[in-house]
Amino acid sequence: MDFMNSLLNLVIPPTSLVMLAFSWPALCFINACEWLYNTMFSEDMDNKVVIITGASSGIGEQIAYEYAKRRANLVLVARRENRLRGIAENARIIGARHVMIVAADVVKEDECRRFVNETINIYGRVDHLVNTVSLGHTFNFDEVTDTSVFPVLLDINFWGNIYPTFVALPYLHQSNGRVIVNASVENWLPLPRMSLYAAAKAALVNFYETLRFELKDEVGITIATHGWIGSEMTSGKFMLEEGAEMQWKEEREVHVMGGPVEEFARLIVSGACRGDAYVKFPSWYDIFLLYRVFAPNVLSWAFRLLISPQGARRTSSLLGTGRSTMEAMMRPMLEGTSPRKPVAGAGSFTFSGGQLIHHQMQQKLE
What we know:
Elements: H1 2-40, E1 49-53, H2 58-69, E2 73-78, H3 81-94, E3 98-103, H4 109-123, E4 128-131, H5 149-175, E5 178-182, H6 195-215, E6 220-226, E7 229-230, H7 232-235, E8 259-260, H8 261-274, E9 278-281, H9 287-294, H10 296-307, E10 348-352, E11 355-359
Parallel strand pairs: 1-2, 1-4, 2-3, 4-5, 5-6, 6-9, 7-8
Antiparallel strand pairs: 3-10, 10-11
Helix pairs in contact: 2-3, 2-8, 4-5, 5-6, 9-10
C-alpha cells in the first residue's frame, strides 16, 4: 500500500494537470454556454417569498434591495428593529410587493422557528433563504484573555446560519427553493488575526457543501464568497439601538481592493436566480488556491511581506483581550447576539402600501 501511494503521488498530480490543460478550453466553453442558458431562463422572483437574515445593514440590506427590484415578497430579519423599518420602506419603494420585518436572534433555534413559522402563516411558502449574518475580529489568538468571546464568534458565524436553514428546509423542499449563504475567502485562505472567523467560515462552507449532496436537486444551495469589501463590517461604524447588545464589528487591518457591497449583492441575487452553485467576488482570488496547493511556501512568504512588513504585532481589536473597552474609540454592533441574552420586545411588522401594520405571531395577511 505504501508503494502504491508513493507511485500515485508521483503520477496523479502531473497527469491531472496535463489533462486539465488540454480540456480547459472545452470546459470554459461549456461553462459559458451553461451560464448563458441559465441567464436566459433565470428564476422569476415576482411575488415569491425571500427570507433575509442580517438584513439591517451591509450585504443583507443591499441583497434586500436587489430582491425588491425583482418584485419579491421580503421577510427581513435582524435584531435592530428600528433600522429594519427604514430598510423595509426603501425596499417597498424600490418595488417589493410586500415587506415584513421581524426582530429576532438567529443563533437561537426557537426564534428562528418563530420567524419562519410566521412567514408561512402570512405568505404560505418560502422560496429563498438568504443567510448573511457574520461577525469578524482582528486579534491574535494568543492575545485573548477572555475566552467567553469564542462561543459568541462561532455561534454567530456558524449556528447563526445553520439554525435558519434547519427550520426553513422543510418549506424549501415544498417550493424547490434555494439557500444562499454569505461566506468569505477566509474559509480556504486564512489570514492572520482572523483565526476563529476563518475556522467558522470553513466549517460553514463544508456544511453546505455536504448538504448540497444530501439534498441533490430538491433544494439549491448558492455559496457566495467575497474578499475584502466595504461595509459596516470593515468600516468600524458605531451603532447602538434599543434592544441591541453592544458588540464589536471589527475594522479589518488589511484593506485590499475594497469592492462595493452593492456589486456583490447584485452578483449574489443574480447568481441565485440563475441557480449558480457559487458566486465569487472578486473571482481572481481563486488563483491563490493554486499557490496554496502547489506552492504553499511562496504564498506564505508573500503574505508575510504584504501583511506584516515591520514584523510588529498590533492589536486593533479589544474583543476577548481583556483590555478595557474605554480604550476603544468605537464599539460597533452586528446582527446576531450572544445566545445567552434574549432580545427584548421582539416582534414583527409588515409594510404594505406604505402603511406600517403590526402583526401578532398568528395573524395572517388579509
